[in-house]
């Protein structure tokens, strides 16, 4: 027999005076941060988008020539340039290598740190934090000295091991070797973030779960892949997206280690390409258009990052 179910109407939440006061207090606390964010992010973005719509060169910046509104012409010119797509592809490939390398090195060292005693763990963290704290400019020059063609330690070691052809090898001349050298430097200064994040996640896993898996006969590899990895997946996703954002906009290492993008621009990434078009070529409008395209790509990745954070909180 069908029964008729009635649902009681749920009264709307009543905003008490205390809740209204808490809301106003929260708004007052957040107001300085909101003003600072608008001043440091929204206004520069507005100016960047505005400049990208004009023929904005050195004369226009100096005020000796009138501004000419171009609309989307700078974007059309950019998207029709083969060099832009080549640089974009190199940027994506370079960022992918850096992200994968940072995740592999950071996760491996996090697992190692969770399985060694206190003193070696402390030394490992000190070494990692030292790499993390080193400024990008200083780290770039250290790696350049290590791989210098004439006085570099790496070439001397390789020549001493029998590879005489590497005695005066230039690591920054070839496209792939230069990108590889810069990628190693970026991974060196990026893996500590992944290491600290994954170590915190590993220490958050209950010992009882790992002991139960071991008592059931699971090997350490099986425990790592079937027990630990699924539980660390939300953190791994956050670390991945964060690394993508950082590595996609690398500028200092590429500019310093390849002397502004390599021979004939063979080692350009989008950030350095935008800088060269805007300041070396005095095409501020076109450089601003490259910056807007980069911002849209990174905002898309950031939206994915925020969504992954919400999902990790729900888990």
Which structural class fits the helix and strand makeup? mainly alpha
Strand content: under 5%
The overall strand count is: 0
Cα distance spanning the termini = 40 Å
Q: From N to C, what is the helix and strand string?
A: HHHHHHHHHHHHH
Keywords summarizing the entry:
315 residues, mainly alpha
How would you sum up this structure, described in words?
This protein has helices at 17-51, 58-62, 73-79, 82-113, 118-133, 136-146, 153-160, 175-203, 207-215, 220-248, 252-257, 270-280, 284-314. The protein is mainly α. It is flat and about 80 Å long. It starts with 16 loop residues before the first helix and ends with a helix.
Task: Annotate the secondary structure layout.
Layout: H1 17-51, H2 58-62, H3 73-79, H4 82-113, H5 118-133, H6 136-146, H7 153-160, H8 175-203, H9 207-215, H10 220-248, H11 252-257, H12 270-280, H13 284-314
Quick synopsis:
The protein is mainly α and 315 residues long.
């Amino acid at each position: 027999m069908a029964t008729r179910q009635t649902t009681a109407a749920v009264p709307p939440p009543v905003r008490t005076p205390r809740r209204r006061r808490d809301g106003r207090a929260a708004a007052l606390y957040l107001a300085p941060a909101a003003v600072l964010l608008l001043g440091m992010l929204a206004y520069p973005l507005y100016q960047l988008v505005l400049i990208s719509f004009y023929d904005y060169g050195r004369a226009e910046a100096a005020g000796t020539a009138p501004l000419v509104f171009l609309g989307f012409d700078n974007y059309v010119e950019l998207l029709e340039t083969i060099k832009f797509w080549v640089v974009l592809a190199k940027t994506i490939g370079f960022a992918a290598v850096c992200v994968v390398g940072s995740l592999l090195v950071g996760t491996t060292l996090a697992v190692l740190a969770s399985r060694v005693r206190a003193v070696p763990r402390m030394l490992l963290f000190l070494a990692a934090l030292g790499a993390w704290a080193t400024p990008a400019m200083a780290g770039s020059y250290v790696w350049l000295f290590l791989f210098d063609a004439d006085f570099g330690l790496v070439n001397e070691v390789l020549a001493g091991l029998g590879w005489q052809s590497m005695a005066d090898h230039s690591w920054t001349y070839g496209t792939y070797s230069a990108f590889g050298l810069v990628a190693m430097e970026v991974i060196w200064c990026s893996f500590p973030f992944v290491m600290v994040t994954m170590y915190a996640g590993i220490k958050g896993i209950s010992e009882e779960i790992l002991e139960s898996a071991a008592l059931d006969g699971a090997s350490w590899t099986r425990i790592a892949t079937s027990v630990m990895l699924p539980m660390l997946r939300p953190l791994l996703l956050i670390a991945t997206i964060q690394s993508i954002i950082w590595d996609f906009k690398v500028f200092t290492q590429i500019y310093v280690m390849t002397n502004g993008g390599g021979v004939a621009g063979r080692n350009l990434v989008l950030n350095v390409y935008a800088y060269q078009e805007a300041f070396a070529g005095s095409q501020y409008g076109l450089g601003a258009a490259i910056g807007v395209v980069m911002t849209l790509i990174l905002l898309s990745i950031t939206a994915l990052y925020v969504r992954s954070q919400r999902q990790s909180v729900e888990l």
